[in-house]
Structure formats: C-alpha cells, structure tokens
C-alpha cells in the first residue's frame, strides 16, 4: 500500500492560501467566525463522532456585496479527491438516507469539505459556501501532482454541491479585482445552469425513492401492517411531522417531536391521538374547507385511535406507532426539508403502490407519471394563471401540481408590481382553479396530502367515480367547474384503454385543451368508437410517441393533444412526432437505485417538441420534418389512425430511374461477358 502524502499536500496548500491576499483565514486549530465554530461543533465529525470537526483550512471571501466561506480539505492518496454517484454528484448520504461518514465524507477531500460547507450553511446565514478538495500523488520519480476541485453549495439546497471547476493551484481564489470578479460571476452562473438543475432533480428523486423503499419494507417486516393501513399511517405521520410555518419561517403549528409520544394509555393522550391532534391543527391552519378536514380525520381515525398500534406489549419499550413515526421523522423529514421537490409524496405513492391491492386491474394500472412528463403535458395544454385545470383519474396529484406551479409562476410575473393582487390570485388558483377526481380511497388521501404539502391546492380533490357519479362540479358547492385544461393518465384497464375518461370529461368541458398519455393501442383500434365520438366536437392537434420504458412496466404510450370544443375536420393537420429517443437513458427500474439519466439534453428534446407543436421558433435541431416528425391528416370517421408511423416516400425520382437503367445495363454486360445471354 502506497503511503499517503497528505502532510506534503497540506504544506503546499497552506502556503498558497496564505499568499492569496485574504485577511480572514484559519488553519484547522484557528477560527474565522464564531458562528461557524459553533455550528460545526454542534454536528457530528467527518467520522460521525460527537464534538464536531474542523476543516483543514477555512477562508472568508468577499466582493463587497457578498461574503462566503470556503472550506478546504486535503488528501494525499490516488483516487481520494472525490466520490460521486452515478449522476456525477457529490455523495453525502448513503442509499438509506443517512450521512455516509464511513465511505464518503471521511475518505474523500471534496466530500469532507462539502460536509463542513453544508453544516455551516444550515447553522449560519451565509447565502453560499465553497467546498474545495485538494489531493496529491507522488510518482516513482518523486514528482508530486496536485489536483483541486471546487463546488458551491447554497441555502436553498445545502446538501447538493454544484460543480464550479477543476484547478492545478489556488490562483482562482486570489484577492485581486480580476480573479475576484470572475469567481463571483461564475458562482452565480453555475447555479442557474439548466443541466445542473436537472441532474439535481433526478438525484432528489433517487434519494427519496431509496429512503421510502427502506421505510416501507421496514414497516412491513417489523410491524406487519396491512397495505391499506400503511399509506394512511405514513400520510398522517407526515402531516404531523412537517408542521406549518408562516412566510417569515416562524412556526404556526410546531412539528410533533417523537419524544412527545410516551405510550400513555390515558384517554385523549395516546400516541395515536397526539398524532391525530397535530394533524387536526395542521389541516385547520392550512385553511382547508371544514367538510374536507372532517373527511380526512374520519378516514385516519381508525388507524391512529382505534388501533392496536397504540399499545405496546410487555417486552416493548414504545408503541409501534412511535417506532414508525420516529422512522418517518428521522429519515423523511430531513429530505423533505432540503430537496424542495415538487412532487415529494408522488414518490411515496409510487413506492407504496407496490403494496396496494388495486381492484379491477393490476398494480401497474395505477402509476406515477414522471414529473418531467406532467410538466411537459401542462405546457402542451398552454396552462397559465387563468387556466381551470382538472384531472379525472388523479393518482397522487402530479398533473395538478405541475399545473399549479406553472400557474403560480405566471401570477408572480404578471403581478410582480402588485403583491396584494399576486397573493389574491395565487389563493384563487389554489382554491378555485384546480380539481381532481380519484376513486380509490387510499390513493385519494395521498393525493390530498401531496397537494397540501406542495401548496395547499387540495380544496377540490374529490373522492368519487368520474365515469358514473361525478357531475363535473366543485367539491363543496353545486357550481360547475369551468374547466379549460384537461390532463390525464387514465387506468388502461378502463374502456378503450381509458379513452372513456377523455370522452366523459370533454362532454363537460366546452373549450380549451386536453392532453392524455395513454397506451397507444387506444389510437390504433382499441377505442375506435369512442375516438370517433370524441372527434365530433374536439380536434386532435398532436400525437407524440413516447419511450417504451417510460413507466415501470414497458408499454408503448403516446400523448394525444386536443383542442376542445372544435370538431375535427378531414383536412385538419395533425403533428405526428417520434419522441422515443427523448435524451434520457433508463435502466431496469426494479433493480436500479437511480434509473433515469439525462444523457443527451433531454430538456432540449422536450422543449423542441413544444416549440414545433405550439408554432414557435426552435432553439435546437433534434427533430427534422420528414425524418422524426411530420404533419398529416386523419380520417375523423376512422378512430384508429392516431399514431405516429414513419412515412416512406415511394414515388420514384429521375435518379431512381437512372440507377435502375444503369443497374440493368450492368447486368446485361456481365451476362454477355460470361456468355450466358443467348440473345447476343
């Protein structure tokens, strides 16, 4: 084993840092800021022990407008600069969600520096921090090679280091006008890079999914809780654990701490009743309609109050409810706090779905539509701040969440100079402009939770059968919902692969757009009669063939985009687009911890499809008319010609004729030379 040269690396690095020109610098045993000292002391060391730890060197950088700390860690062995995951992002936590002290944070320079930077951000008001790893190796001739990598972390996502650059020395940190201006500009630029942000979102998804799978398996193995109970317990526990904060970050409803669950059997004071009381306060503070509050509490009551999970056996130190709640509080809440993901409980839904017995279909009949697809479809349907959006097979609420985020973003822009009107518009969006219908009770409760956690747009989540009894009205009054956007991923086991949902909804929606992602056999024969009826009053605008491995079960799907309320005429053009190569690479979803990789500008592919269909100028050239997309007509009386099929032009050209004649003459000559043509 080659000996580490970390001491040599430290001497080299320390000497360079002292020559950079910054006044506020500190080696391992010195201090640059008491606040940093205090927060590092209050966290575990790089090895996971108590008493905190100290970075090898700390430098405070400033350009006059912004001040940020830089944390530097040294290593002196081959391959010890950094440890990255499959998304090429710095590893801080392991697959189970715990900090990986043993094989990442303590072993690699960048990972250790990132750990210190993360803790400093969480415990101080610095907006950003740099994590700098330095490694050195010596070859057989005694020459030492140094390598430096720098990452920036910010308050919004303190656990997600963003790559800044690789260097051979510390000159990039010099305190002179040129270097300083370049450094701080680059800090701003990299945090807005679209590819970086996309990669971080993918990592968030993978992290959440890994923790949820472990949690779900543990609840199943240790508590033997039946599937129908499991989702309700996790949903209720999450509501009690997240609390409610005001705009200033002050707690209006504090989080229920696991230590408050004492296992008391006193009436009104059991662990389940304490959780349910916190849920009740949570719902009230979120200002949900009173009937919805009662509905949710009545639904959760049997699981938290009338349950043996409130009782501990003679050899148990705590109730099963507390054990589960502690796991959720320790493993899920930290991720909820730092990821800021838009569909947090959508991941919960997909993991728990593996344990749910779905009637009238297989488990694959109720699936989570990926967030990038729900966003894409909402954009296809031209959602804006004035849209009224509904989904008739809601699932976890992913479509409504994507629509809500676009609508709120639009309101922020349009009312940027009038914050009062902006606030009123956003409240109207959440309470009056979104509606979802979900039949399955355990999926319904998760959709409600999802919408509450992501922005309170849960007022009009309806637990009803959209094909039989739902009448197209608001949840808590008799007014028709004035829908002008329809978004759907239907159960494919329903009539016409699910197209029956589209027909029913369009009969009540009089204008606007609708986008459905569906098994594309619906467009080639499985829903012929339904499709013909749909086209009587609705125009098919686009048909987009999607990757076959988009969902857990490999199935060929297409997205159909409609303009509602306008009959489809025989000469209306339809965009047919092949998006099977969408820029993402997917792995086997059953085995992989991370199964989605942006390998070829996926965001650019989806944006270009939007630009083509919405008749906007393209910024990329991934799609060429006649190659992977075309415009064509369909027969409104067919109902089975809706899918993309690559067009091949069989009309002969002059060049084809010349080639054919040339080939024939060549053959004739060869026959003569062989003496096989008896006519000559």
Low-confidence stretches: 357-364
Using only CA atoms, what is the Rg? 30 Å
| Strand portion | 15-25%
Give the count of helical stretches. Answer: 19
Biggest beta-sheet profile: 9 strands, mixed
- The largest sheet has its strands arranged as 11-10-9-12-13-15-14-16-19
Mean pLDDT: 86
- Counted beta strands: 19
Overall structural class, as computed from helix and strand content, comes to alpha/beta
Quaternary state of this entry equals: single chain
Observed structural traits:
19 strands; hydrolase; restriction system; VRR_NUC; EC 2.1.1.72; DNA_methylase_A-5; 680 residues; 15% strand; nine-stranded mixed β-sheet; alpha/beta
Protein model, in words:
- Its cofactor is Mg(2+).
- One of its GO terms (molecular function) is site-specific DNA-methyltransferase (adenine-specific) activity.
- Keywords: Hydrolase, Methyltransferase, Nuclease, Restriction system, S-adenosyl-L-methionine, Transferase.
- By secondary structure, the chain is an alpha/beta fold.
- The chain is built from 19 helices and 19 strands.
- Strands 11-10-9-12-13-15-14-16-19 form a 9-stranded mixed beta sheet, with helices on both faces.
- A hairpin with a 4-residue loop joins strand 2 and strand 3.
- The N and C termini lie far apart (83 Å).
- About 1% of the residues have low confidence.
Give the SSE map.
Elements lengths: L5 H13 L6 E3 L6 H8 L15 E6 L4 E9 L25 H5 L3 H15 L4 E11 L5 E11 L7 E6 L9 H14 L3 H30 L3 H16 L1 E2 L5 E3 L17 H15 L4 H15 L15 H20 L4 H10 L17 H10 L8 E3 L6 H17 L4 H14 L1 E5 L2 H15 L5 E3 L21 E4 L10 H10 L4 E7 L8 H8 L2 E8 L11 E8 L9 E5 L5 E3 L9 E3 L3 H12 L15 E4 L21 H21 L6
């Amino acid at each position: 084993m080659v000996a580490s040269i970390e001491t040599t690396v430290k001497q080299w690095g320390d000497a360079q840092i002292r020559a950079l020109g910054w006044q506020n610098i500190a080696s391992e045993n010195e201090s640059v800021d008491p606040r940093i000292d205090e927060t590092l002391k209050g966290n575990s060391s790089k090895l996971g022990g108590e008493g905190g730890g100290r970075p090898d060197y700390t430098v405070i950088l400033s350009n006059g407008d912004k001040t940020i700390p830089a944390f530097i860690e040294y290593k002196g062995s081959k391959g010890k600069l950094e440890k990255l995951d499959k998304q090429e992002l710095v590893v801080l936590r392991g697959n189970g969600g715990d900090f990986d002290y043993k094989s990442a944070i303590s072993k690699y320079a960048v990972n250790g520096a990132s750990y210190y930077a993360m803790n400093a951000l969480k415990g101080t008001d610095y907006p950003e921090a740099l994590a700098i790893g330095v490694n050195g190796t010596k070859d057989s001739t005694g020459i030492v090679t140094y390598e430096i990598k720098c990452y920036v972390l910010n308050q919004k996502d303190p656990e997600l280091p963003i790559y800044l650059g690789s260097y051979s020395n510390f000159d990039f940190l010099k305190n002179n006008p040129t270097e300083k201006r370049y450094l701080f500009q680059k800090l701003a630029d990299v945090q807005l890079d679209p590819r970086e942000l996309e990669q971080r979102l993918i990592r968030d998804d993978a992290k959440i999914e890994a923790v949820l799978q472990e949690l779900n398996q543990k609840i199943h193995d240790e508590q033997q809780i039946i599937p129908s109970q499991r989702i309700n317990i996790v949903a209720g526990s999450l509501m009690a654990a997240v609390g409610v904060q005001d705009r200033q970050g002050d707690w209006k409803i504090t989080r229920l701490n696991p230590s408050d669950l004492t296992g008391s059997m006193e009436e009104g004071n059991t662990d389940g009743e304490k959780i349910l009381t916190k849920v009740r306060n949570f719902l009230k503070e979120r200002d949900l309609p009173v009937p919805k509050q009662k509905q949710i509490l009545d639904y959760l009551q049997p699981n938290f109050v009338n349950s043996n999970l409130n009782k501990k056996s003679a050899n148990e130190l705590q109730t099963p409810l507390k054990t589960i709640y502690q796991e959720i509080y320790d493993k899920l809440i930290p991720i909820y706090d730092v990821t800021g993901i838009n569909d947090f409980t959508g991941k919960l839904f997909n993991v728990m779905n593996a344990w749910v017995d779905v009637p009238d279909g297989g488990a694959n009949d109720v699936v989570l539509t990926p967030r990038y697809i729900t966003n894409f479809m909402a954009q296809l349907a031209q959602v804006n701040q004035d849209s009224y959006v509904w989904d008739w097979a809601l699932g976890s609420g992913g479509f409504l969440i994507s629509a809500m985020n676009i609508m709120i973003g639009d309101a922020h822009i349009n009312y940027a100079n009038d914050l009062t009107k902006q606030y009123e518009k956003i409240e109207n969006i959440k309470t009056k402009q979104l509606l979802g219908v979900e039949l399955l009770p355990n999926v319904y409760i998760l959709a409600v939770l999802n919408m509450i956690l992501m922005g309170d747009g849960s007022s009009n989540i309806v637990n009803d059968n959209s094909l039989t009894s739902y009448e197209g009205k608001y949840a808590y009054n008799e007014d028709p919902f004035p829908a002008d956007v329809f978004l759907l991923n239907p159960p494919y086991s329903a009539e016409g692969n699910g197209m029956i949902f589209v027909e029913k909804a369009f009969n009540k929606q009089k204008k606007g757009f609708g986008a459905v992602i569906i098994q594309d056999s619906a467009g080639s024969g499985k829903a012929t009669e339904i499709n013909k009826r749909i086209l009587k009053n609705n125009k098919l605008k686009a048909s987009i063939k999607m990757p076959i491995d988009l969902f857990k079960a490999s199935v060929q799907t297409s997205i159909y985009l409609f303009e509602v309320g306008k009959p489809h005429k025989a000469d209306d053009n339809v965009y047919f687009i092949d998006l099977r190569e969408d820029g993402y690479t997917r792995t086997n979803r059953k085995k992989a911890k991370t199964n989605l990789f942006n390998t070829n500008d996926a965001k650019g592919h989806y944006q270009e499809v939007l630009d083509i269909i919405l008749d906007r100028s393209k910024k990329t050239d991934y799609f060429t008319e006649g190659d992977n997309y075309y415009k064509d007509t369909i027969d409104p009386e067919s109902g089975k010609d809706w899918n993309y099929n690559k067009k091949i032009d069989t009309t002969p050209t002059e060049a084809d004729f010349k080639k054919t004649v040339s080939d024939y003459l060549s053959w004739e000559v060869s026959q003569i030379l062989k003496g096989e043509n008896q006519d000559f």
